[in-house]
Amino acid sequence: DTEVTQTPKHLVMGMTNKKSLKCEQHMGHRAMYWYKQKAKKPPELMFVYSYEKLSINESVPSRFSPECPNSSLLNLHLHALQPEDSALYLCASSQDAGGREFFGPGTRLTVL
Amino acid sequence: RKEVEQDPGPFNVPEGATVAFNCTYSNSASQSFFWYRQDCRKEPKLLMSVYSSGNEDGRFTAQLNRASQYISLLIRDSKLSDSATYLCVVIGDYGGSQGNLIFGKGTKLSVKP
């Protein structure tokens, strides 16, 4: 299995909603990442987990809360988002932090 | 400070053309280098790693010049399916043992019949 999967593919939420994005990989990778990508821009790193511990938080607002329940799963909990948070949220994994990354298909999020 | 800079696009080329993309990076301690391609509304996919000795994969050739902090990607005999945005990616070194991907803004390639 050489895939990173993400659910849901699309998500529409209001500013008062609480939702979660999920990411899963079964490649035995020990580093997992969340990126945010706006249209016509490159992905922007949000969080890095290495061996299930948060190692990088790129000054992301607290309305985004990552969680790594185990080495295969990565969640991103969303609460009280703003319309400007609408974007494609990409999950990626790599063998170890600093290695080449494999991306999931992303969740396209719209905040109304 | 732009850590990874790429040629501004878009590149519009006919099928069969040879096209070259360039990329420069600012952090001399950078460890690893890649080209990713991203199709519209899809995730980035690793195209190839880039080594100092240069590497070739079919119609694609990547080159790294550490002294000039410069990376290139050459595509020969362009196909319609090569149309995509090509992202130059550098793994930084910010102290400690971990790096993370730093993306260039991407160069859009459009191959026309």
Structural class of chain B: mainly beta
Which protein chains make the most extensive interface, counting residues with beta carbons within 8 Å of the other chain's beta carbons?
A-B, 23 and 21 residues
Extract low-pLDDT stretches of chain B. none
Total count of helical runs of at least 4 residues of chain A: 0
Rg of chain B is: 14 Å
Q: Let me know the average pLDDT of chain A.
A: 93
Largest sheet descriptor of chain A:
7 strands, mixed
How would the global form of chain A be characterised? globular
Radius of gyration of chain A: 13 Å
Number of strands of chain B: 11
User: What is the string of SSEs of chain A from the N terminus onward?
Assistant: EEEEEEEEEEE
SS elements, strand count of chain A = 11
* Helical proportion of chain B, percent range: under 10%
How large is the share of residues in beta strands of chain A? over 45%
Structural class of chain A: mainly beta
Q: Name the average pLDDT of chain B.
A: 89
Our measurement of the CA-to-CA distance between the termini of chain A, rounded to an integer number of angstroms, reads: 36 Å
Order of helices and strands of chain B: EEEEEEEEEEE
State the gist of this model.
Chain A is mainly beta. Chain A contains no helices and 11 strands.
Please describe what this structure looks like.
With 112 residues, chain A is mostly beta strands. Chain A is built from no helices and 11 strands. Chain A has strands at residues 4-7, 10-13, 18-25, 31-37, 44-50, 53-57, 64-70, 73-79, 87-94, 102-103, 107-111. Chain A is globular. Chain B has 113 residues and is mostly beta strands. In chain B, the strands form 2 sheets. In chain B, strands 2, 4, 5, 9, 10 and 11 form a 6-stranded mixed beta sheet that branches. In chain B, a hairpin with a 6-residue loop joins strand 4 (32-38) and strand 5. The radius of gyration of chain B is 14 Å and the shape is globular. Classes of the chains: A mainly beta (112), B mainly beta (113). The A-B interface holds A 33, 41-43, 45, 48, 50, 55-56, 88, 90, 92, 97-106, 108 and B 31-32, 34, 41-46, 49, 87, 91, 97-101, 103-106.
